[in-house]
């Protein structure tokens, strides 16, 4: 079963975020708190959305996403920040169901893009996305500003 997250799900979501970060060899980078995530998802101006995959009423996976906008197409799209299914529940269709939920939101709302990034060493995920018919965007390089460089650019160093 796939469903939108509720405030009561925040502890489970944070737990899975930590599991995902450990899998991606970046557990040391996780700073999110339950309070931050609760505000980001359920505050006055939500910044992101989460859908959960459940098995026997237990959250076994999630996808966290937010809206983007395509200047070329003139319509919003979805950027999937994270897709995670707990290892013991992989292969059960939960990842496909979560992706299908986001695709359904796109279709229902007239969004024309569903985008995400995957680590270049994550062969199981790459294979999963390739099977869906997703197209790699190899011509684009990702950039990110965080921490001190972001503050410096903002003039707050």
TrEMBL record:
PROSITE patterns: GNAT. One of its GO terms (molecular function) is acyltransferase activity. Its EC number is 2.3.-.-. InterPro entries: Acyl_CoA_acyltransferase (IPR016181), Diverse_Substrate_AcTransf (IPR051016), GNAT_dom (IPR000182). The keyword Magnesium does not apply. This is GNAT family N-acetyltransferase. It is an enzyme of class 2 (transferase). Keywords: Acyltransferase, Transferase. Residues 1-155 form the N-acetyltransferase domain. It holds the Pfam family Acetyltransf_1. The keyword Repeat does not apply.
